[in-house]
Amino acid sequence: MAAGHGPIEQFEIKELVPIELFGINASLTNSGAYMIAALGLIFGFLYFSTGGRSLVPTRLQSISEILYEFVATTVRENIGTKGMQFFPLVFSLFIFVLVLNLFGMIPIPGVTFTVTSHIAVTASLAILVISIVILYGLYKHGLGFFGIFVPSGVPIALYPLLIPIEIISFISRPISLSVRLFANMLAGHIALKIFASFIGLLLGAGVWAILAPLPLLLTIALTALEVLVAVLQAYVFAVLTCIYLSDAVHGSH
Amino acid sequence: MSPAGKGSDQNDGEISPEDRAEFKKRSAELGRKLEAARPGEDEVAKSAKETANREVLGRVLRLSTELIGGILVGTALGWWLDTYLMPQVFGAKTWPLMFIVFFLLGSAAGMLNVIRSGMKMKTGPSDPSKGPAVRDDEDGDI
User: Fold this and answer.
1) Where are the domains of chain B?
2) SS3 of residue A25 by DSSP
3) How many domains does one find in chain A?
């Protein structure tokens, strides 16, 4: 396999514009550039598609209306109408992750980069979510927020065993939230790259070139699956954000 | 549709039989077109089923990491207690006691996570008008 065509080169972070701020490397990388592009696309799309605000929506306007309805339903189902104050947060997270995931599916050699395949990004998002859950829970319920660690309907004798379990379960939330998104994107893109490289290897292997269409078909199928996973993982991220926020809004369960 | 008042023609205000037949034909055709354009019962049920499938798929994808997350956090916490907090702050040699205990607690927490999201999968979204995404089992033992 030639250099630059291995399965993990696609995740390499490249510095596009070197910037040094107070001794910290704050360079614009391809990751940062993709995030800025995603923000630009989201802002531009929502700005222009909702600009007309006609009663009978145009096609673009109905896309943003469907997006709104979809996220609003998710928020209402998981937190209740009281949770609509968190709608902007959930909507931003959902659409940001969705666009970044889908950006990774655009096949341009050497340029395509999946921002959400880096745990630094997904963990930051998860830490943001869990910080808001803790801060809002403390603000709303005071110290009573820690009541979510006390299971209800259990004899007090079991508390020393169950409270650590509940605390570990709570700490594991941001970890599984970030690991899920990053691992899915990483594994999916590695699998795509590996199967795609089989095509080239088989084509260069004499008689075995007859078999080359097989990995091609598999790559096509995997691409479709990856698009599904990209959308679904953004949805799962939004749903879990709602479920965790619901604890902060409603207090102990 | 009332006669306009002139009254000389007996057909006044009344449409001719040919026109009537033509009108009936057009109205029947419009009815058929509307029927075709409207999504049938099947399609409504199908799209509802697809929505339910998507929700279930989303939840299934969550299960595996829920378990791993619990175990990872528990084990890491136990390891940290054993190698840093206990020996360096309290001066006690506990290795590998905390590691083992917290590995078990972490596994329990992981199972708890899985059971919680599994329960949600069974009962479906909390909105009662939408009904459960997956049917409850008949003896209702949840």
Assistant:
1) 69-122
2) strand
3) 1
Residue A4 lies in a domain: no
Burial of B117 (0-12, 13-18, 19+ CB in 10 A): middle
d(CA B76, CA B82): 10
Give residue A114's domain range.
Answer: 9-250
Residue B131's CB is within 10 A of a number of other CB atoms, namely 12
* Residue A2 belongs to a domain: no
Spell out a b/e string for B36-57, using b for 16 or more CB atoms within 10 Å of the CB, else e. eeeeeeeeeeeeeeeebeebee
Q: Taking the C-alpha atoms of A44, A46, A50 and A56 in order, what is their torsion angle to the nearest 10 degrees?
A: 120
Cβ-Cβ contacts under 8 Å, B127 against chain A: 76-77
Kindly list the residues from chain B whose CB atom is less than 8 angstroms away from the CB atom of residue A184. Answer: 61
Q: Does B123 touch chain A (CB under 8 A)?
A: no
Estimate to the nearest angstrom the gap between the alpha carbon of A204 and the chain centroid.
38
**Burial status of residue A231 (CB atoms within 10 A of its CB: 0-12, 13-18, 19 or more):** middle
> What's the CA gap between B33 and B10, in Å, rounded?
35
CB-based contacts of A179: which residues, under 8 Å, 6+ apart? A119, A122, B65, B68, B69
The answer to whether position A133 is within a domain reads yes
A3 within a domain of the structure (yes/no): no
Query: CB–CB of B73 and A172 under 8 A?
Result: yes
* SS3 at position B51: helix
Contact residues, chain B, for A239 at CB < 8 Å: 58
pLDDT digits (tens), chain A, 253 positions: 444 467 788 888 888 888 888 878 888 888 999 999 999 999 999 998 888 777 778 888 889 999 999 999 989 988 888 889 999 999 999 999 999 999 999 988 778 889 999 999 999 999 999 999 999 999 988 888 888 888 888 888 888 888 999 999 999 999 989 999 999 999 999 999 899 888 888 888 888 888 888 999 999 999 999 999 999 999 999 988 998 998 888 876 5
Please compute the mean of the pLDDT values over residues B43-63 and round it to a whole number.
Answer: 72
